[in-house]
From TrEMBL:
It catalyses: a fatty acyl-[ACP] + malonyl-[ACP] + H(+) = a 3-oxoacyl-[ACP] + holo-[ACP] + CO2; (9Z)-hexadecenoyl-[ACP] + malonyl-[ACP] + H(+) = 3-oxo-(11Z)-octadecenoyl-[ACP] + holo-[ACP] + CO2. Involved in the type II fatty acid elongation cycle. Catalyzes the elongation of a wide range of acyl-ACP by the addition of two carbons from malonyl-ACP to an acyl acceptor. Can efficiently catalyze the conversion of palmitoleoyl-ACP (cis-hexadec-9-enoyl-ACP) to cis-vaccenoyl-ACP (cis-octadec-11-enoyl-ACP), an essential step in the thermal regulation of fatty acid composition. Residues 2-410 form the Ketosynthase family 3 (KS3) domain. It holds the Pfam family Ketoacyl-synt_C. GO terms for cellular component: cytosol. The keyword Lipid biosynthesis applies. It comes from Candidatus Viridilinea mediisalina. Keywords: Acyltransferase, Fatty acid biosynthesis, Fatty acid metabolism, Lipid biosynthesis, Lipid metabolism, Transferase. Its EC number is 2.3.1.179. The active site is at C163 (for beta-ketoacyl synthase activity). This is 3-oxoacyl-[acyl-carrier-protein] synthase 2. Pathway: Lipid metabolism; fatty acid biosynthesis.
């Protein structure tokens, strides 16, 4: 019999706050976490704003020496995982540690450390490079450090699929538990790419908004005046458990993960396939694997980055599966509030999806002043909305044509 998988804890470090309660308070306040870049001098960049994590102190979750040796993306991951474990009331000990895994994803990894060490290489020579460069830089070290910090000795790895990375991590963690290869997995993603080269790289692709005069209004998915996405940073983590294991230890059950599907467009290195076929196929597969019909979905948390080409494609794919406005469920874009967290986006948006179920509130799409005619669904504009939320579809897509859909459902305890 296939095991059921539930969510028992959540952690998040985002531009809206350093914890899940702070994130949710920012969502309900329809607040923007976007502002001028302070992590470096961006005065010579075409885009001079981003969604930064403010006030983060890594020594709250690791000692000062270890913090100096690790990249910011690793630090953020450890913080999110620590909060999630505390929320789940899960102590990893000698009795369970071999059955607890860690799947923490990252799209880019330690780009800040790499950039810093490249400058040292050019200015001071190879003999001055830090011995911690490689461990700080490679994408899997967020998963590795979370495993080391927590003592989890089950399966542990990093999935890198650009902006779909952490959604893939959650989905593959669910399947690993269903197979019986682990009882618990800490799953999520982390990213910290607000660096000169990170911003310049996306600028060169003409992917970023340049609305420097009003940065808090720059992330505007589905709006006719959108001009690109806003770079963000942060981390999100879920504690996923075998239902029987969770019930046996009296864990709080926040939601059940019902469906997961991943497809490829096989089309372009950075653009979505214009017909949205790969997205629609992923949604249908997730629904089929969950044993749900499209009419049972209460709300869709969209990938929706705010790029001119991407948002209409996702909207068209949603309509292909669910029908036009009036038939399709409400849709919203959390990136409107905290930008695009790249490899961490799927995990943080999964946290928001589960919070929507728990609290009966549809998260808003802020900065939606004039909807694009090609984007004609109900996007919950500018303010949260009370609603009965039983099933949430969470979309994530990545450069290279990666599409991931996750389905979360309200957990109903069995009637005894």
């Amino acid at each position: 019999m296939e095991r059921r998988v539930v969510v028992t804890g959540m952690g998040a470090v985002t531009p809206l706050g350093l914890s899940v309660p702070e994130l949710w308070a920012g969502v309900l306040a329809a607040r923007s976490g976007v502002g001028p870049i302070t992590l470096f001098d961006a005065s010579d960049h075409a885009t001079r704003f981003a969604a930064e994590v403010k006030g983060f102190d890594p020594t709250q979750v690791m000692d000062r020496k270890e913090a100096r040796r690790t990249d910011r993306f690793v630090q953020l991951a450890v913080a999110a995982a620590t909060e999630a474990l505390h929320h789940a009331g899960l102590e990893i000990n000698t009795q369970n540690r071999d059955e607890v895994g860690v799947f923490i994803a990252s799209g880019i990894g330690g780009i800040a450390t790499l950039s810093e060490q490249l400058e040292i290489l050019h200015s001071r020579g190879p003999g001055r490079i830090s011995p911690f460069l490689i461990p700080a830089m490679i994408t899997n070290l967020a998963a590795g450090q979370v495993s080391i910090t927590t003592g989890a000795r089950g399966p542990s790895f990093c999935i890198t699929s650009a902006c779909a990375s952490s959604a893939h991590a959650i989905g593959e963690a669910v399947e690993t538990i269903r197979r019986g290869w682990a009882r618990v997995i800490i799953a999520g993603g982390s990213e910290a790419s607000i660096t000169p080269i990170g911003i310049a790289g996306f600028q060169a692709m003409r992917a970023l908004s340049t609305r420097n005069e009003a940065p808090e209004q720059a992330s505007r998915p589905f709006d006719a005046a959108r001009d690109g996405f806003v770079m963000g940073e942060g981390a999100g983590a879920l504690i996923l458990e075998d239902l029987e294991f969770a019930l046996a230890r009296g864990a709080p059950i926040l939601a059940e993960v019902l469906g997961y599907a991943a497809t490829s467009d096989a089309y372009h290195i950075s653009n979505l396939a214009e017909d949205g076929e790969g997205i629609a196929r992923a949604i249908r597969l997730a629904l089929r694997r969950a044993g749900l019909t499209h009419g049972q979905v209460s709300y869709i948390n969209a990938h929706a980055t705010g790029t001119p080409s991407g948002d209409p494609v996702e909207s068209a794919a949603i309509k292909e599966v669910f029908g036009p406005r009036g038939s399709a469920p409400p849709v919203s874009a959390s990136k409107s509030q905290f930008g695009h967290l790249l490899g961490a986006a799927g995990a943080v948006e999964a946290v928001i999806s589960i919070l929507a179920i728990q609290h009966g509130q549809l998260p808003p799409t802020i900065n939606l002043a004039e909807p694009d005619p090609a984007c004609d669904l109900d996007y919950v504009p500018n303010a949260p909305r009370p609603a009965q939320v039983d099933v949430v579809l969470n979309n994530s897509f990545g450069f290279g044509g990666h599409n991931v859909c996750l389905l979360f459902r309200r957990y109903d305890p069995p009637v005894l």
